[in-house]
Amino acid sequence: MDKIKTLIRMFKIYGKMDLLWFLRDTKYCLMYIFSDMISTLAVVVGVFLLAVKFDGIGGMTEKEIIFMLGYSVLVEGVFALFFISNNAGQISRTIGRGQMDHKMIQPLPVWIQLATEGFSPVSGNGVLLCGIGLVYYSISSSEINVSGIWIVLLLINLIASCTIMISTIYMLSCTAFYAPAAAEEIASVGIGMFESLKNYPLGGMNKSTQIFFCSLIPVGMIVWFPSRILLGKFDIMIFMIMAAAIFLVLAVLIFKKGMRYYAKYGSPRYSSFGHR
Amino acid sequence: MQNMVHQDIPALVIDNVSKIYVQWQRSGKIKDIVKNLFSPERKEIKALDRLSFKVSSGEFLAYAGANGAGKSTTIKILSGILQPTSGNISVLGMFPGKDRIKLMENIGVLFGQRTELWWDHPVITSYEWKKSVWNIPQNIFDENLAMVTELLDLSDILKTFARELSLGQRMRADLGMLLLHNPRIIFLDEPTLGLDVLAKKKMINFLKKLNKEKGITIIVTSHDMDDLEEMAERIILLSKGQIAFDGNFEELRKVQNNSSRLIITSSGEAPVLDEMELIISEEGKHSYKFDKEKIKINEIFKKLSQYPEIIDIEIIKAPIEDIIADLYNSWKK
Lengths: 276, 333
Description:
The complex is a heterodimer. Chain A is mainly alpha-helical. Chain A is built from 13 helices and no strands.
């Protein structure tokens, strides 16, 4: 119960800090939100044009592709909402710059700090709104039967997609514990990988490629696979939940191992910008 | 701020603590490529070597040593950031590795070359963030905010972005933030680093006041020995991860048997004085080191009376910087 109260307290303060940025630097904050929306939409437009040109790609129709891209923007929006600020989603920077020290001197479990410090309900909501708009447009122009259960399914899949994405980024970022200079930016590479690859439907590929992109490099588990579940093309929902749980457990174990290494050897690097 | 000194529990106990780092050695030669891939050369560095000491509640301890002596490593171990390779540590009766969260509610850590302030927010936002993270009750927060604002002269900078502060202002703001949760011990790693004379003086006076009036245990590291002498009563000097000296500054001077300085201003050559070592002679000012216990002051005056060209004589305590420099040199030999 105490931990939940702490989580709420921390979400509140980070939400307030994000709002303060908007109130102080409204012009810059709006520019940031709009440019974020434009760059996100630009990434999905390419796949959309391909689908229009070939009347659907990767075993999905044009309308299904629109839904998939909407879901993709929605995932990115949720990711932005919770992890865009303070390098919470780019944890390799914090590790590589030796700034885990800042977290160790706070009287909070490290996981609570990492789960809350990226919360940006104002600056991170532009992409989320785009995602909601796109998903709404796609379901209103298709035959998806939207019910209460379907919305619950959508939320579960969203959480699972984001969990797989952030877990993979954290696992990659753990290399910064061992090679702080070389791996400082590895989280950005991971995010870039998801941004550019997750929008492609894997239906046209052979089974082994599909398995590869749904396990070792789980780009297929972020958008393609959950979209198929939501479009009623795949019934076994538990796959997503299990995959999310496995990735989360792996990320926690690997991160804990990295933290033990950090406590043993520290970091030889420090970039003195305080909390970022 | 309430005086929260608990006399029965030592502020900290370090018992036989060692910390060994491993450094990878890189030759940068082509012939070593394969060797570097499979069995790179490692070098073990003993940052702390069976270190033991105790600090009582309310003490103001200076923790000094040359670069790489193990000062920052000790602070990091005491604050639970690093784990020792061996040995036991207790801070306020807690074990930093196990009780990190509880411990952090009771101590404050400030690394001089770093900041805990949010870089892209005004100082007051960082303070409010601290209130949430440390869950500081509103009345205690208001009381402490008023205190640090007044004593550290923060009213002008509370609404300024941390990134726009000068180093001195940033240090004051950081120190103010450090005290908002009523810490019982504060660890300050190089708090006067880079500060100008005035900012340094303000900082030192504030810390002394804090220690004296609030009973907060302070452990401070610095390379500036004069600052340390002005602040602390006790000094621990580290050399190669071991304690080379533990006592007060007067005792430290006695260790080197050159506790005094004789400064002569003369229109002629530097007088030749037996058993006194001429350290520097510049523009008519000649400085000697001597041990007051061995050479009587009246004997010095008797000898100096033979030099009519002497204009002025001054006898002072040896600057602590010189004592430490001599000690560091003696450890190198």
